[in-house]
Design brief:
about 30% helix, alpha+beta
């Protein structure tokens, strides 16, 4: 098998505003290239991981003359995220790690990249040759996990690979609540555990409807980010607000791409975060709030509910959100690294 580090563009037969997967397939959890389970739910895998970090990306599949090309989207951005998060993990359990092998190597981003690449190659090879990939599954969702394991006497690399959910432009219900996220620029499994109670509380409140995410409100009344997304507000004056990175939010892949799209559009990207006070004092100024993430691209929020006061705001979906969805989808395809199996 060969690996191609260069950017690659690819074609994928997908309908407008959607990546489609129709066939069921197993979910695979690998650790250090060894298949651990095809039954474990991803939430259980992530929440049970200690002293570790994670990030989630998509891989689009292209079939060429009996070969499979796995195009991992935003691969190098996810490697950078795992590398920076892993440095925090190592620094905060250094005493416990005395005597562990090869830890110093993980200070180098090239080493982290090579470890992930080798594990991905082995996983893709196993899924294709041993399990068999259903023909009409064209997009995978991959969660990288990396951490320190006493059992492994060093660093482990985990991969949770599943069929990606259908990615389509759709209105969503989102709650918001006052909550401060510590170390927001890192993707630590400790945050996944911390946010779980907040997400469960929101889901119980909107049941039987689905709560897509919970947006965090800081002590100054500023909307920062979602538990698993970035948050944008489109206003009537064509100004778009999102919390600046300096205020402490994750620099998500879709956040960066959307900011780039907005630079060459009729919209003006504000340097200010959207505020609860601004929404309550003049809610009509908000055209539509949106959330962005790798597995959602961009989704318009039509129900925005204060989880603390139960106050609710309703929005309609403007036509330009669909155009932005398409533009971001095209950008995703241009930022991939190809694994040929």
């Amino acid at each position: 098998m060969t690996r191609d580090r260069e950017q690659s563009e690819f074609s994928n037969n997908t309908s407008e505003n959607t990546f489609s997967n129709s066939t069921e397939m197993n979910s695979y959890y690998f650790v250090n290239s060894e298949l651990i389970s095809t039954k474990l739910p991803k939430k259980q895998v992530v929440l049970s991981s200690v002293r570790s970090c994670y990030t989630t990306c998509l891989a689009c599949i292209e079939r060429n003359s009996g070969m499979l090309d796995f195009h991992v989207l935003y691969f190098m951005k996810h490697i950078a995220r795992i590398h920076s998060s892993m440095q925090y993990v190592l620094q905060n359990c250094s005493v416990e790690l005395e005597g562990f092998d090869d830890l110093i190597d993980f200070a180098q981003i090239d080493h982290v990249e090579n470890v992930v690449r080798n594990n991905l190659n082995d996983a893709f090879q196993h899924i294709n040759s041993v399990e068999g990939l259903p023909y009409d599954v064209d997009t995978l969702r991959i969660t990288f996990l990396m951490g320190v394991s006493s059992e492994k006497q060093g660093v482990f690399c985990g991969l949770y690979i599943e069929k990606a959910p259908e990615l389509r432009m759709r209105p969503v219900t989102v709650c918001y609540s006052q909550h401060v996220r510590h170390n927001p620029n890192l993707k630590l499994t400790s945050w996944a555990k911390e946010r779980e109670a907040l997400l469960q509380r929101a889901q119980e409140f909107v049941h039987p409807e689905k709560c897509e995410d919970v947006v965090l409100l800081d002590e100054n009344g500023c909307f920062t980010e979602g538990c698993s997304s970035n948050f944008f507000v489109f206003r009537k004056d064509n100004i778009v607000e999102t919390c600046p990175l300096k205020n402490g939010v994750l620099s998500g892949t879709m956040r960066s791409s959307l900011c780039s799209c907005l630079e060459n559009s009729q919209f003006i990207l504000s340097k200010n975060a959207p505020t609860n006070e601004g929404m309550l004092s003049d809610v009509s100024d908000w055209v539509c709030p949106c959330i962005t993430s790798t597995s959602r691209i961009i989704l318009p929020v039509t129900r925005f509910i204060n989880l603390d006061t139960q106050e609710e705001h309703i929005f309609t979906v403007p036509n330009f959100i669909s155009d932005l969805f398409d533009e971001l989808k095209d950008l995703m395809k241009q930022t991939s690294v190809c694994f040929k199996i």
